[in-house]
Structures are given as structure tokens and as C-alpha cells.
Design a protein that fits this description.
The chain is an alpha+beta fold. A hairpin with a 2-residue loop joins strand 6 and strand 7. Helix 6 crosses helix 12, helix 8 packs across helix 19 and helix 12 runs antiparallel to helix 13. The protein starts with a helix and ends with a helix. The N terminus and C terminus are likely disordered. The protein binds protoporphyrin IX containing FE (HEM). Protoporphyrin IX containing FE binds next to helix 13, helix 18 and helix 19. Its main location: other. It is found in: Cell projection, Dendrite; Endoplasmic reticulum membrane; Microsome membrane; Postsynapse.
Length: about 450
């Protein structure tokens, strides 16, 4: 059976149906970005404004002024500099959900530059190349397990959510490689964590609505979100306690994300277990949900473009042949697959953008930006602007081929995601990206190979 037949798009899917600003085919919006204020409707409306008014757009919401900056110069100016912190008011909204501490002061939400920098430097070793090479075995095993599950389901009649499958496999992977946990979310449908993550993400989106937690019709949702946050923090605590016990019993420490989180805490003057839990949950959620979204979008795009799928298959065949396991070196040879993943990230970014704050006045592209303003950066919108990408709504991985004429756009748009998170110590995020790419390549290639046998 062809892949396209196996994949079931959500009925809300508008991609490729003539909509200008198509968003998430699952009708659900993106990962962490949602919590930061990037809803589908907002992005569509802001995109229309950008087309109408130009790449620097003022947005008024009650007494607050925000400016959306969609120029490469603006991205560079504000995201490459430590002078512009994350916007406290916005990030605070996801630190706690309905009064329950969620990702608190973790790496995503910490707004003080010095504190952020310290945390980032400590995390770097957990993203070293040698560590990543050691993860290939897990990636391969989990990819194989995913294929077995997909085969069971693919009877040509049953509809199932590819996103759910991807969420489960990426959760198993991050659990194992970052925290040494065997979660088995893929094999155990009753496992409560996937549902808890879904609820907290919904909570992040809904927390934008003022006073929602007091609305009579929303009490069930609020209760469920709070319970989910508590469940995540409980799991985190148990895992941390176990790791500490292992260390006390002389067990050799694995180099992983949890080890680095614990090291970071040991260096603090005021040690705080709650902070450790914040970072556990930050990496747990940020490390799998984004990747699952990107994988699902990529599968959807491949299903919609059989010619591209064929090229991917041919490359996988050529590079891997009948090999079961992918080696780290193979990843660099899967060039076309890598282009497909980049194009998927361009058109369907799991995180739509980021925000910063300026307390000083600026002039960007001749336009005055007042002091005390929230700055909004959207890679989602930039990727859909004709001024940066030729025929922007077309899924065309050849934009990223080595010999394609360099669209200035590509670095501009990558800049939003890349520079936002890279500004001073870039190892962590580069490696997170490598980790993501390795996971995705392993999962995608397993998918392609399985299709052929
Ligand atoms: C397709 C996959 C991914 C995408 C699209 C993505 C995107 C992003 C973006 C745009 C940010 C910046 C958010 C902001 O500053 O407002 C971010 C931050 C972050 N991501 Fe990812 N990410 C992905 C995968 C991962 C993975 C695999 C991990 C961990 C293993 C991870 C961990 C983090 C962390 C810890 C931060 C905060 C970094 C900091 O502020 O220093 N992400 N990500």
C-alpha cells in the first residue's frame, strides 16, 4: 500500500486547499510557540497585516504595544544580542499554569540573561557529538518499534493519528536518552504521560484567555490541566530521586541531560529542587513534542507529494541498502531527506516564533520602535512572504539543495529560529537540532525502508 493511502489527514486540514495561511493539519496549533502567543488565527491575521503594511507591524492590544519584526536586519539586531531579554510578561504565562508551577524558571522561561547563560553553558556537554553518536542505537531501536506498530495499524481501513504515534515514539526516545527512563509510551496505550502532555499544551494555549481559570464552564479543563502538571512534576521527582540514589550507591553517572541538570543545581548557591523539576519538564516537553510535530508534518507533506517521496525512497535505498541500523555517518549522506526536513521546518514550523523585550527606542529599516515594547519574531510568517521565498506556499525541498541559488530568505528565516536560541552558546541548540535530525532521519528512513519490503 502506498504511503499516501496510509496517512489520514485531519478533516480540518487546509493545507494545499487554496488557503493562503494554512496552519496545523491537526487543527491544533504548534508546540511551545502556542503558549507564547502564536495561535493559528493570530498568525494568519498578522501575516495579512505584514503583506499589507510591510515587514514591521505595530500591534495594539489594550494598553500594550507590540511590534512584529519580519526583516533579516531586525532579526539579527535583536536576537543576536544579549541586550534584549525574553519578554517576562509573556513567558511568565507559561511558567505557571492556572497557579500550578509548570516549567517555572527552566531554560525556556528564564528571562534574566545571566541566569539563562549559566544554565545554557552547563547543558552543553549533554549535546556533545560523541554523546549523540551513542544515541543512535536507541534511535534505531525505537524506529523499528514504531514501524512494527504502524504495520499493525495499517490495514487499509483503520484511521489513526500519525501525530499520536510520533508523540509516543519521540516521548520514549527523550525519556530514554535524556533521563534514562523506559516509558514504553508506544507499546502501552494506557500510559498517562502522553495525555498529560497534551493537556498541559492545551493549558498553555488557553492560559492566554484572561480569567479563564475562574470561568464556570472551564473548571473541568482547568482541573485536568493542573492534575497533568502535577503528574509531570511527580514523574520528574521520582526520576530525580532514583538518579540520586543510584549516584549514592556508586553507580557510574551517564552523561545525559539529567546529569547536567543536577550538575547545574549543584553549582547554585541556593539549591532548589523545584528548579530541577522545571528543567526536567522543559527538556521533556520541548525535546519531544516539537520533533513529533515536525515528523507528522513531514509525513503529511510526503503523502501530498508522491514525486518527492519517490526521491527520498531512492536516496534511502542508495545510502542504506538493506541495512537495518543507521550509522551516524549515514545521516550526512541523506542529503535530499535533510532538504525535505528543512523545507518541512520552513513551511510547518512546530514553534512559530519567539519574543523579546526592549526598554530602549530603536530605528529599524527607518521605522521607529518605541522603548518598552514587546518584539515579536515569526519564522512562520517570514517563510510565507513572497519577498523572502519564491512561491512560498509550495513545498519545494530543492530550495535547500547545495546548488540552488541562495535565497537570502533562507538564512533570514532560519535566523529567527536559529539565532533566537543560539545567541551566545550555540552548542546546545545546534546539537538539539542534530539530535532532532538524527531522530527524524532514523524514523523517516525506517518508514521508507519498511514501505519497500
Ligand atoms: C523540530 C524540533 C525543534 C524545534 C522546531 C525547536 C524550536 C525551538 C525554538 C524556536 C526555541 C526558542 C524558543 C524561544 O526562545 O522562545 C527553542 C528553545 C529550546 N528548545 Fe527547541 N526545538 C526543537 C527540538 C528540541 C529538542 C530535541 C530539544 C532537547 C533535547 C529542545 C530543547 C529546547 C530548549 C531547552 C530550549 C530553550 C533554549 C534556550 O532558551 O536557551 N528543542 N526550540
Amino acid at each position: 500500500m502506498g504511503m499516501a493511502e496510509r496517512i489520514v489527514c485531519h478533516p480540518a486540514c487546509k493545507v494545499g486547499k487554496g488557503k493562503d495561511w494554512a496552519w496545523d493539519p491537526a487543527g491544533r496549533g504548534c508546540s511551545m510557540g502556542m503558549g507564547l502567543g502564536c495561535r493559528q488565527q493570530d498568525s494568519e491575521e498578522e501575516g495579512r497585516r505584514a503583506k499589507k503594511y510591510g515587514p514591521i507591524v505595530r500591534i495594539n492590544a489594550f494598553h500594550r504595544v507590540s511590534v512584529m519584526i519580519l526583516t533579516p536586519e531586525g532579526v539579527k539586531e535583536f536576537l543576536m544580542s544579549p541586550q534584549y531579554p525574553k519578554d517576562r510578561m509573556v513567558y511568565r504565562r507559561i511558567s505557571n499554569l492556572f497557579g500550578e508551577r509548570f516549567i517555572g524558571n527552566g531554560l525556556v522561561t528564564v528571562c534574566d540573561h545571566e541566569q539563562w547563560h549559566k544554565q545554557r553553558r552547563i547543558m552543553d556537554p549533554a549535546f556533545s557529538r560523541s554523546y549523540l553518536i551513542g544515541l543512535m542505537e536507541t534511535f534505531n531501536d525505537k524506529a523499528e518499534e514504531l514501524m512494527e506498530k504502524l504495520e499493525e495499524k495499517a490495514d487499509g481501513k483503520t484511521e489513526f493519528s500519525m501525530l499520536t504515534m510520533m508523540n509516543r515514539v519521540t516521548m520514549d526516545i527523550i525519556g530514554k536518552v535524556a533521563f534514562g527512563l523506559e516509558l514504553n509510551a508506544l507499546s502501552d496505550d494506557r500510559m498517562p504521560l502522553p495525555h498529560a502532555v497534551r493537556m498541559v499544551l492545551e493549558g498553555m494555549t488557553k492560559a492566554r484567555i484572561p480569567l479563564l481559570r475562574y470561568m464556570p464552564g472551564k473548571q473541568k479543563l482547568v482541573k485536568e490541566v493542573k492534575e497533568s502538571v502535577r503528574l509531570l512534576r511527580r514523574v520528574a521527582k521520582e526520576c530525580i530521586d532514583q538518579r540520586r540514589k543510584d549516584i549514592q550507591n556508586g553507580k557510574e553517572a551517564t552523561l545525559d541531560i539529567l546529569t547536567q541538570i543536577l550538575k547545574g543545581d549543584a553549582l547554585e548557591e541556593t539549591r532548589d529542587d523545584e528548579n530541577i523539576l522545571d528543567n526536567f519538564i522543559t527538556f521533556f516537553v520541548a525535546g519531544h513534542e516539537t520533533t513529533a510535530n515536525q515528523l507528522s508534518f513531514t509525513v503529511m507533506a510526503l503523502a501530498q507529494h508522491p514525486d518527492i517521496l519517490e526521491r527520498v525512497q531512492a536516496e534511502v535505498d542508495e545510502v542504506l541498502g538493506a541495512k537495518r541500523d543507521i550509522d551516524y555517518e549515514d545521516l550526512g549522506k541523506l542529503k535530499y531527506l535533510s532538504q525535505v526536513l528543512k523545507e518541512s521546518l520552513r513551511l510547518y514550523p512546530p514553534v512559530a516564533g519567539t519574543l523579546r523585550w526592549t526598554d530602549k527606542e530603536h530605528v529599524v529599516d527607518g521605522i521607529r520602535i518605541p522603548a518598552n515594547t514587546t518584539l515579536i519574531f515569526s519564522n512562520y510568517i517570514m517563510a510565507r512572504l513572497e519577498r523572502y521565498f519564491k512561491d512560498p506556499l509550495t513545498f519545494n525541498p530543492d530550495r535547500f539543495s547545495e546548488d540552488a541559488p541562495k535565497e537570502g530568505s533562507i538564512s533570514a528565516v532560519q535566523g529567527v529560529v536559529g539565532k533566537a536560541v543560539n545567541s551566545s552558546t550555540d552548542t546546545l541548540v545546534n546539537r538539539a537540532v542534530e539530535m532532532r535530525d538524527a531522530t527524524m532521519s532514523a524514523l523517516c528512513t525506517a518508514n521508507e525502508r519498511d514501505k519497500m519490503h
